[in-house]
Amino acid sequence: MAFVNAVGRAQPNSLAQGGTGSNLTDPNADRILFWDDSAAAIAFLTAGTGLSISGTTITASGGSPGNIGQIITNSAQPNGSTTSSVNLMTTAITPASTSSKILVFGGATLIVTAASTSGYLQLDGGNIDVSAWAPIGSASPTAIGIFSTAFGMDQPNTTSPVNYTLDCYVSGGTILYGNGSRRCYMMLIEVLQ
Q: DSSP assignment of 133-184, as one string?
């Protein structure tokens, strides 16, 4: 934005007048307009390493090994009971790289209805090892709510969506899940390699 001064020269509108306060030139590339406090002026920002600008989209790529690529969280409120097994919820993630690792966390509040009842939460999907079982334990006294968690690490070797499930397995009785405001939770964290 500019206005013409008394001698006929175009002057930039000040910031106070809604302008840029600068005579800007075309950067001949997609750029972001920003305030550079060290120069006390409006300038064009250049995308750094791992960032690109195309049209109206900023894209991050690459990343350093060990950095978090993305975090997916999900919750569900299934209601019911089981004497054998049940899928409590499923959550999907699409890895950015075939070398990424996925940390998978799951948790649920379960109610054990008999002292002889025991069970496990299990995370499954991708290449998750079944050793990611978390024991729920046996109830004494009965009808107590137990928040149990399970976690594991996967390297799915794909950039296609991968589904992970949180399952409950029971032995020697019945386990209630959901029942009111009790929820199940999953978190999938992509770790760039």
A: EEE----SSSSEEEEEEEEEEE----SS-EEEEEEEEEESS-EEE-TTT--E
Q: Look at residue 91 and tell me whether its pLDDT is greater than 90.
A: yes
- Position 144: which residue type? I
Are 95 and 129 in the same domain?
A: yes
d(CA 159, CA 139): 42
What is the CB neighbour count within 10 angstroms for residue 58?
12
Q: Domain span at residue 39?
A: 2-60
Q: Does one domain contain both 168 and 82? A: yes
- State the CATH number of the domain containing residue 123: 2.60.120.1340
pTM over 0.90: no
